[in-house]
Write a structure and sequence with these properties.
The protein has about 325 residues and is mostly beta strands. It folds into 2 domains: about 160 residues, Galactose-binding domain-like (Jelly Rolls); about 150 residues, Galactose-binding domain-like (Jelly Rolls, Sandwich). The chain has 1 helix and 21 strands. Strands 12, 13, 15, 16, 17, 18, 19 and 21 form an 8-stranded antiparallel beta sheet that branches. Strands 1, 5, 6, 7, 8, 9 and 11 form a 7-stranded antiparallel beta sheet that branches. It has a two-stranded antiparallel sheet with strand order 2-3. The longest helix is centred in the C-terminal third of the chain and has 14 residues. It is globular and about 65 Å long.
Length: about 325
């Protein structure tokens, strides 16, 4: 029986290319490119795929070392934040995986070059790793990090590096009108009634959707009910506009949608009183819908309801953080930076 992945894997992958992560440096990548480490898709294996340097792997692979030392790769996180756990996935690396790995991190202001990064702090001490396996390493640090460095001992291949954690945005960039629900701003999925085909967390990812798979799709309902997804906002805010995007959902978009808002303390969402931000409204397939919100009360959570079911590509909750919310964001940022 396969053990369940640790709870931290339910948090966003802060290093993912989908969030703007980048592998900015590696001391060696002779067999397979460092950029593969942060590809969002699961690694794949093509048995007959060979190139001029040998077997082509969907990961990062260094040459066999003949001298002392070890190899490393540096990743700039797409969204800086508190790291709760790391996954070094060695899928398909069976005789060429590193027997040990470690992970360090740094908090750097601005946009430094890799050679300018310093004061690396340990996240994962040098630890054993297995081949063809997702190796899980919990992290206890409560600091905000911008870069991580994966070291492998002495050499070998790693298919994917996942850096799961909680986004901690810089409050300086959350002034004015912002997307209060966006993952990169600190929004998160709190509840979802059904995610049979794809996660509702996709609704608050950056950018435009790339396909129907890049959204939230639930199963077909046969009971006359409806589905919903609830999001905790980055901070309490006043909502001014809602964008409901059904792009690529041509024959399976919801017929109607409604958006509710509430102001709820942590842990009390089940007892919250919800108000309508957007009344039940008819939707069109494969369409970006924009709605102005006439409301003056701050909210901490929004709930998107779709009737009776169907797929959505993106949800944008545009508004302004309250003064109290901005103070909380600044205190949090200062405490972990």
């Amino acid at each position: 029986m396969t053990a369940e992945p640790p709870q931290f894997t339910g948090l966003p992958d802060l290093a993912s290319r989908l969030l703007g992560g980048s592998v900015v440096a590696a001391n060696d990548e002779l067999f397979a490119e460092k950029e593969n480490l942060i590809k969002p898709a699961a690694p794949v294996f093509a048995p007959g795929d060979y190139g001029p340097r040998g077997k082509v792997y969907d990961g990062w692979e260094t040459r066999r070392r003949r001298e002392p030392g070890h190899d490393h790769a540096i990743v700039r996180l797409g969204v800086p934040g508190i790291v709760r756990g790391v996954v070094a996935d060695t899928s398909f690396f069976r005789g060429n995986y590193p027997p040990q790995v470690s992970v360090e991190a740094v908090h750097a202001a601005g946009y430094p070059a890799p050679a300018e990064l310093g004061d690396w702090q340990p996240l994962v001490a040098r630890s054993g790793a297995l081949g063809d396996t997702a190796n899980y390493y919990p992290v206890t640090s409560a600091r905000r990090w911008t870069h991580v460095r994966l070291s492998i001992y002495p050499d070998g291949g790693v298919a994917r590096l996942r850096v799961h954690g909680e986004p901690v945005p810089d409050p300086a960039f959350l002034a004015g009108t912002v997307d209060l629900a966006a993952l990169e701003n600190g929004g998160r999925l709190a509840e979802c009634s059904d995610a049979f085909y794809s996660s509702a967390g996709n609704l608050i990812m950056p950018g435009r959707p790339a396909s129907m798979a890049d959204g939230w799709e639930n199963a077909r309902r046969r009971d006359g009910g409806s589905d919903y997804a609830t999001f905790a906002l980055a901070a309490p805010g006043v909502v001014a506009q809602l964008d409901l995007d059904t792009s690529y959902f041509v024959g399976n978009a919801p017929g109607w949608a409604r958006v509710l808002g509430t102001s709820a303390a942590p842990g009390s969402l089940h007892a919250a009183q919800w108000d309508e931000l957007l009344a039940r409204t008819r939707l069109q397939p494969d369409t970006r819908h924009r709605f102005r919100v006439q409301r003056s009360h701050p909210v901490t959570h929004v709930r998107l309801e779709v009737f009776p079911d169907g797929g959505m590509a993106r949800l944008r909750v545009l508004g302004a953080v309250t003064p109290e919310g901005m103070a909380w964001l600044r205190d949090r940022y200062d405490a972990c930076s």
